[in-house]
Design brief:
Length: 379
Amino acid sequence: MKNIQRYIWVLTLLLAACGQKKAAEDKAPQKTAGNLVQLTDAQFKNAGIVTARPEKHHMAEELRVSGKIDVPPQNIVSVSFPLGGYLKSTNLLPGMHVNKGDIIGVLEDQQFIQLQQDYLTSKARLGFLEKEYARQQTLNQSKASSDKLFQQTEAEYKSQQILLRGLDEKLKLIGVNAARLNESSISRQVNIYAPINGFVTKVNVNIGKYVNPPDVLFEIVNPDDIHLGLTVFEKDINKLAIGQEVLAYTNGNPAKKYRCKIILVGQDVEPDRSVQVHCHFEDYDRSLIPGTFMNATIETTADTAWALPEEAIVRYQNQQYVFVQKDQRIFEMQPVKTGAHAEGLVAIISGDENLSRQAFVTKGAYSLLMQLKNISEEE
């Protein structure tokens, strides 16, 4: 009975030892030679290795740049008022849309009253001088009055015409129609009108504030001619041309692409060796406002090439590598040269005619790199 128990105990120890040996074999990768790494079935499954052959793709070299949304100077209007005054009312808020001719504010001041008063007084005096001029002209022709008196009347009449004309232009500056002005329509208030269609971007005043002629009350932007201004470094300018397509996107929503076309390449090089490139949106989204920062990609050259997913490329010690499947669980790390990047793919530059028949690791390449380099360090 004791012999049977001893036999069972020895058999248990042998089975446990075999299990530990098998577990150790499953755990440790086996390097066979050079840059080869061999995986067990369990390691292969855990690493999530996926292989694929290169495929031909239409690859375009992409230039990645950044910039911001801008509008030409003629589409930005800073609204000020030629005479000082107190802001009586306004309902503007940044982001509001206004049409040309809308009342966007009301100012009041005693000088508005004085200007209208001066105009009506001058107009009345001009009527008197006009009649006096006609009377003196008749008298002078019959020699009933002297030439000097006629000339003096003529000078006063023409001076009053000039004065009235000047006051008329001043009233136009503050938006008052002199033709409709009379003694019963004098007002201490004048309206401020929107000079263009657009969106309000700045409101710099509040009700009750006194504004001077140089002060900017509001800023209005017309987005009809909005464009994207990109910063491109001098070394890449020769790759660009008018009409090239651009894909732009914001940091907040990089998945949504906006198609643009280059309309102007700047001729001035900034101190940081950059040049401004202007693009038009093919279909402008009004949610994009001037000043919004955007990234963009520009296709510069296009060609058909063998390509792999970007995940297939690993970087180690400032070089690029791929893993090629040599056997069912054996992979070899090989240096590689890459070309254009586009839509998650990268072109492979190689003179190997057998490139299309080789299986490359497209997922799990970095796991192989870590296992291979760990083995090298241990040895």
